[in-house]
Amino acid sequence: MASAAHRRRFGDLHGAGGLCDTIVVRNEAGNRESCAYLELHLRACLRPSRVFQESERLLDVVTRLTDKHEASRASPWVVADAAADFIAAQLRGIVGVRIPVARFEGKRKMSQNRPEVDRVGVMAGLAASENPQDREVANLIQPSRRP
Shortest CA distance to 63 belongs to which of 48, 85, 81, 36? Predict the structure, then answer.
């Protein structure tokens, strides 16, 4: 069990993936609102000792993040493309924080408590979205509760 001082520093980091906006489902029963989402809560203890500012360590983190987020581009940008003095100046403005996660809690609401006609409508609305994340969520909704 964490000490009382550490328990007070625990906090929830909340992030949601997928659609969190309301969807209007149109069916023969009338218009109904529904929502489909994935939710993840992380439980962590923040301590000052987890903060770092060493340029080598920050450069490693920034490089890995850049590589990850640029990978899907036709011509990905890499940190090494920038001038060394520019990189050094940017790193001076960054504070790294390492957050060890003690517990994950997740929730998945995929219209499972709704009639099949509503689930099909939610799936269709998400599948037609221009947002790729919405289309991914559409694939998670089961059209029928029966096997």
Answer: 81
Residue 61 has pLDDT above 90, yes or no: yes
Q: Is 20 helix (H, G, I), strand (E, B) or coil?
A: coil
Residues 53 and 28 in one domain: no
If one counts the domains in the chain, the total is 2
Tell me: pLDDT of 96 over 80.
yes
Q: Which domain holds residue 89?
A: 49-97
Same domain, 68 and 83: yes
0.85 exceeded by the pTM? no
**Phi-psi bin for 142: left (phi > 0), alpha (psi -120 to 50), beta?**
beta
Distances (CA, A) of 59 to 47, 50, 52, 85: 22, 17, 12, 13
Paired tokens of 123: 């799936």
- Residue 8: pLDDT band with limits 50, 70, 90: very low
